[in-house]
Design goal:
alpha/beta, five-stranded antiparallel β-sheet, 10 helices, globular
């Protein structure tokens, strides 16, 4: 009766409002059989309403991939919020950890693979209403100069957009909200309208001044985080391989993390490099493309290619993206 009743409720929301997906709160606390019985009815209701690719993702607050993946493989939740990514990505962006931590995270991705899902379906995020905002989290993890918070926040977003998964930006992060007082839970739930709450008026912002008596919408287009998010969103849209193309780790040592992404349709390779150090670094990596050179799509960098070896310079606290000018022509690299 419970799962049938909730299927009817959620199905009516789909038919009445044309919703494209559901985030299911506290998904770990329901019966292990619930999603096996409930989800198929929701998918049927979505198809009946003419909505394709309806997505259901559950909140399972667990930082252990081996525990998290059981909810996808055993409990049959379509996909879940990627808490392990949230932890490791903010660790790396803050400078608290190095690139090997990111490599270890992604090496566990195969555990999410089933007949209907993979790590590419995981919903990635950097902060939320419970734990706090990304700016608050990064600043809390490691003490650093105030002027590094903006580039480190952008670095975290680049990692989320160009690795794998379905990226989610918590509202207000795009205008640099950081959260007041302790920064977590209720203090990360400000509204964006003019406020009478004094601590919200004086809350520190990344890339802009406190909102004071104004609202948080007006300055959106001028905030450097919002500008950067639009840039990387457009880049991901124009280059589908950067979204969820096959990912291969090329280099992970100290501050530098370098991956290749493959556009299967074009048989084209991308190189994405991240640097969480406050100094620029150079690295040489092996690629699957041996000729034709590389086009810089994001950031500032220099590249030198010889056969299937590419040497690139990655500025401090930055991400750079390159696209091969010619198709992949080196097998199994």
């Amino acid at each position: 009766q419970v799962w049938q009743g909730w299927a009817q409720v959620y199905a009516k929301w789909i038919s009445d409002y044309g919703l494209a997906g559901f985030r299911v709160d506290t998904a770990r606390h329901v019966d292990d059989e619930f999603f096996k019985k409930w989800s198929p009815q929701i998918q049927t209701a979505a198809k009946d309403a003419g909505i394709n690719n309806f997505t259901i993702f559950g909140e399972v607050w667990d930082y252990n991939p081996f525990e998290l993946m059981t909810y996808v493989r055993r409990n049959k939740i379509q996909t879940v919020l990627d808490f392990p990514f949230q932890g490791k990505a903010t660790d790396y962006a803050s400078g608290y950890s190095d690139a090997t931590a990111m490599m270890t995270l992604f090496q566990n991705d195969d555990y999410y693979t089933s007949a209907t899902s993979s790590a590419s379906n995981l919903v990635t995020f950097l902060g939320n209403h419970d734990m706090g905002r990304v700016g608050y989290i990064i600043a809390k993890k490691k003490q650093q100069p105030v002027d590094q918070l903006l580039p480190r926040t952008n670095l975290a977003h680049a990692l989320m957009y160009f690795s794998r998964g379905i990226p989610v930006v918590y509202y207000g992060d795009e205008v640099g909200m950081t959260g007041t007082n302790s920064g977590g839970d209720q203090f990360a739930r400000q509204d964006m309208f003019p406020t009478q709450v004094e601590i919200w008026k004086s809350e520190k912002r990344i890339g802009s001044s406190p909102v004071g008596n104004g609202d948080s919408f007006t300055g959106t287009n001028s905030n450097p985080i919002a500008i950067y998010l639009k840039q990387i969103s457009q880049l991901r849209l124009e280059n589908p391989g950067l979204a969820n193309g096959s990912m291969l780790i090329r280099y992970a040592k100290k501050s530098l993390f370098v991956i290749s992404k493959k556009d299967a349709k074009e048989n084209r390779e991308y190189l994405v490099a991240f640097n969480n150090s406050n100094s620029p670094s150079s690295v040489e990596v092996t690629t699957a493309t041996s000729s034709g050179g590389w086009q810089l799509l994001l950031g500032q960098s220099k590249v030198r290619a010889t056969s299937n070896k590419v040497k690139i310079m990655v500025p401090a606290l930055s991400a750079v993206v390159f696209k091969a000018n010619k198709t992949i022509n080196v097998g199994a690299t």
